[in-house]
Amino acid sequence: MKLKASISILVTFFLLTSCVSNKDLTYFGDKGNGDELLAQNIKLNEKPYRVQISDLLSIMIKSSDQKLVAMFQPVASEDGSNNGTSEQSLYFNGFTVSKHGNIEIPTLGKMNVLAYTLTEIEEAIKKKLLEDYFKEEADLFVVVKLAGLRFTVTGEVGNTGIYVLYQDRVNIIEALASSGDITTVGNRKDVLIIRQYPQGQKIHHIDLTSIEAFNSPYYYIKPNDMIYVKPLKQKSLGTGTTLIQSITTIVTVLSLVTSVIVLSRNL
Fold this sequence. Notes:
By secondary structure, the chain is of the alpha+beta class. It has eight helices and ten strands. Among the domains are: 56-146, wza like fold, CATH 3.30.1950; 149-235, Outer membrane lipoprotein wza fold like (Roll). Residues 1-23 form the signal peptide. Keywords: Membrane, Signal, Transmembrane, Transmembrane helix. The chain crosses the membrane at residues 243-263.
């Protein structure tokens, strides 16, 4: 009787601790207040990105006077345009925001861009060019973009590593998808985002199983973010993550226990 009770307790323990619940695997699983309200909340959270220290900017200046434009480009081709679009080219020819919040454009000199939006930087550059170098009829065109949004993903994901997405805005789901998504033993309820600030790094948390994740200030990642996915307890226990795997583990353990009992009785 004691043996049967011990086996029952053992089986119950494995069933309760080994399987990963469907709740733990489902993104945004709980119900919100309706799709329309949710969409409004997401739209409200889509604030323009403001430039930070160490950001890499790509600045393109176009005009009918391309020879004059060449003065403001780090590396110019014969027609006065900057054609480097590879990651390596952007690294050398882009404009890195210094620790004081400045970028330095050839001929124009230093400009403070810290906490400005990309649109505000475009307008400031265009204004300065029109005041000092170009005439209104020069058809001046200025585009400022982030030279790729770089971030790191590590922990329980398909492929850990450093990634660069050439988009103005990247949400955490897109970032995780680029790394092969969270594994079945990854903790979606407490994903860590380590973010850079002028005063240092801070760790933030987001629950991706809740629909409230859309309202989180960390739903959209920022350049140089590090995303860490912690393992679930099932991984540390070394048990199966599905019911079939758990049953296999239980059968293996029971077979081992039975073998030990049989051998001990024959001694």
